[in-house]
Amino acid sequence: MRGRHRNTLQAIFADPVRANVPWAEVEALFIAAGASILEGRGSRVRVSLNGVDAVLHRPHPAKETDRGALKSVRRFLREAGVMP
């Protein structure tokens, strides 16, 4: 994982939960960790990593991930064994 991906991972797990992490960086982190990403309907994104599956929602119209979505990303990464 590159430095930029490690920084994104730290931002995702930062306390208090941040509301300014760009979704494009979250997706780049998923890909760097080896996840497969499939487009769902609307803003849904199906992500599979280390045998763990999740359906997440892309933020819209904003580019930044909100706190609730970031908590879901955090839970998914923790279950998949990806921690900072």
In short:
It is built from three helices and five strands; from the N terminus they run H-E-H-E-E-E-E-H. The protein is of the alpha+beta class.
In words, what does this structure look like?
This protein has 84 residues and is of the alpha+beta class. The chain has one domain (3-79): 2-Layer Sandwich (Metal Transport, Frataxin, Chain A). It has 3 helices and 5 strands, in the order H-E-H-E-E-E-E-H. The strands form 2 sheets. A 3-stranded antiparallel beta sheet has the order 2-3-4, with helices on one face. A two-stranded antiparallel sheet has the order 1-5. Helix 1 (3-12) crosses helix 2 (23-32). The termini are close together.
- Determine the N-to-C terminus distance: 11 Å
CATH architecture: 2-Layer Sandwich
What is the percentage of strand-forming residues? 15-25%
* Strand order, largest beta sheet: 2-3-4
Q: CATH superfamily assignment?
A: Hypothetical protein
CATH topology: Metal Transport, Frataxin, Chain A
Number of helices: 3
Task: List the keywords.
84 residues, alpha+beta, Metal Transport, Frataxin, Chain A, two-stranded antiparallel ribbon, 5 strands, 39% helix, globular
